[in-house]
Request: fold
Amino acid sequence: MVLLRKLPGMPGWPAALGLRLPQKFLFLLFLSGLLTLCFGALFLLPDSSRFKRLFLPRRATASASSSSSSSASSSSASSSSTRDTDLPRSPPAAAEPRHASPAAPRRLREKLRTVARMAGPPAHTAPGSRQQVQGGERRAEPATGAPPARETRAPLRFDYERFRRSLRHPVRGRRPGEDPETRARRMKIKEMMKFAWDNYKQYALGKNELRPLTKNGHIGNMFGGLRGATVVDALDTLYIMELEEEFQEAKKWVEKSFDLNVNGEASLFEVNIRYIGGLLAAYYLTGEEVFKSKALELGEKLLPAFNTPTGIPRGVINLGSGMSWSWGWASAGSSILAEFGTLHLEFLHLSELSGNPVFAEKVMNIRKVLNRVEKPQGLYPNFLSPVTGNWVQHHVSIGGLGDSFYEYLIKSWLMSDKKDSEAKKMYDDALEAIEKHLVKKSAGGLTYIAEWRGGILDHKMGHLACFSGGMIALGAEHAGQERKQHYMDLAAEITNTCHESYARSDTKLGPEAFRFDAGTEAMATRLSERYYILRPEVVESYMYMWRLTHDPKYRQWGWEVVKALEKHCRVEAGFSGIRDVYTTTPTHDNMQQSFFLAETLKYLYLLFCEDDVLSLDDWVFNTEAHPLPVNHTNFKASVQ
Ligand code: DMJ
Reply:
């Protein structure tokens, strides 16, 4: 229209053509139609068209190309043009992740060469997702036309039989003669698992968790409309404990009722560790295809969360629409270290089983971003911006918000059959910095790991941080000769401190967090930190310490936990968390957490098994205690 404006002293050009008023009107009508046609044609041009790139705003196209690229971090062009105001706001109903601490607002081994090797022969990468820019907010939508993993599989398949033959130990052990007491204790734990499962099945099958007091089910808002968290979390424990009938019940539910076509906001982290981890483990243990195909299908649904300028995924994803958000409580739209840092093990297996490298590429990119960013004093803060790739806040913790990131570094190395030397180095460096800045000894001689806020120490340890005894012992096995004993000692000291947090309570169960200040040692000082929700971390460390030292005190300590669970947490219809560990008549929270079946009971059971049951030579446990095989590559055979 600017072109048609009459310039002073010059006739307008329709007038210059000597047209009358009706003719002028018709001419203008024709011209505007022509313009509309030309402009519309631009949008019909294929994505790659140079014209489209010339006319459309740079940011939208950049994000489209960055998301389809396997290495999102390299799309820094798009990140530099994206302002913070483009950050998604969290949806009002977004839930907190269960691993978050209550005080905080609840909580390339051989580089890409190895990824390619682990992910199998080159398969074509699924076309990436497109990002939608809506009302100033960037939201991810599912890859339009992205074929599911099954269709992108290379013409090779995972040879399950060959994989099983490669294991160094029978999965459920050889069962040599053993002392009757150990056997009886193991059988007791098996009975507890059966009791927990039977009650879930009777009152809550298909819901996510059992409410054992009110005898009904709980759905919650962590899993984006997915159901059956307890079923999927329990599968491998039922299998390992040889609860055959119960395992078949759980399998049948997965086959018949596990619906992945849901529409709701899920925690990327929780869906990955519980559902993908649980399904993968069930597949590797049994070879049942249904577990593999469900894991791959669900894995595809998580991919849009990675469509950010850096490739660091956001914490919340709508499994139906593929839109993703950061948690509302995470400062400045940041992503959480323990969440985006706890995808590596599962995603490598998704690539291995599908033949589609996209999963491995996503997590290798996370590592690339983490390696690039500067670490204050060598430490990894808990909040990182998925837009800039920089830390948002300097809060460091080996408990909630940080915990399983460190666990996945050492386990990535172990799972790669000790080839992923980059992960090992990252773990070694991180542990060195943690030891230097966070590890302290109390006046009473208890070793603990404090939290760090921009250089100021908070002398508290969360129950979640108690997994670290086991992790440090696992890593110590592979430290140089001179460091090995040092780390074994550190692991034993931390495990002892966590045991003290149990021993000093009236119930002999530990609080959610305990402190070392104002004369307090290994006890909760705040009312809000006195609860116990059937968490596994302390018995997890007992299990590793037992396997790596065979010191009988760890079995003894584990048995004390069994007795305490029976006394204070067992109710008429299942097991329940308690609200205060410092009273012998605690009230119950009416929740049987799915991780009680996945982790707490599994680690207790393994504590009373021979070492060849789920041998550490063959398996690594994901952070939800789902076993994933170590030596898992090179099991491809031609499709018949
Ligand atoms: C589990 O879901 C996992 O262990 C996670 O890493 C954090 N903690 C809970 C159980 O406490």
Remarks:
- Residues 180-204 form the longest helix (25 residues).
- Residues 98-99, 404, 464, 535-536, 595, 599, 623-624 surround 1-deoxymannojirimycin (CB under 6 Å).
- The radius of gyration is 28 Å.
- Residues 197 and 246 are 8 Å apart (CA to CA).
